Amino acid sequence: IRLADIARDAATTTQTLHTHFGDKASLFEQVARRLGEELGRDRATVPEGDVPAMVAALMRGYERFGDANWRLVSTAERVPNAADLLQGARREHRAWLATTLGRHLPAEPHRRAVVLDALYAATDVGTWKLLRRDLGLSKPRTAAAMQALIRGALRDPTGTEEVP
Length: 164
What we know:
- The chain contains eight helices and no strands.
- The protein is elongated.
- The protein is an all-alpha fold.
- The protein has a domain of 108 residues.
């Protein structure tokens, strides 16, 4: 990702970006912070345990920012601070899952961690990218697949009980 490309897309100059943000790392930090705040506000409106509302919030964010998010993931090794930004975003995503689905998670710490791992995989931008971009699924099919993955992760290990 080059500053010249960002400047062109933003209809400004590279010098303006340097003046406003300093360097590429600072620009990425600001973009990640603002994106995180916007996504966080949207996700905060999801009622606890409401899987369709969760997926709707994820889809809104991923449809709007998923491709850019994936580019950042794929270039993290080359962009200063990107790995730290991504780790912070991952912690926030996992915390959101734990909060939103908390009453449906196992109480036992190891089982709870395993279910959270599965939920993370079911709701990660990489899963959205696989379904939407790589497999070419429609928005409704992608949402349905993500809901199925979430419900599967939440299913009682004995197979006798399923949550919303």
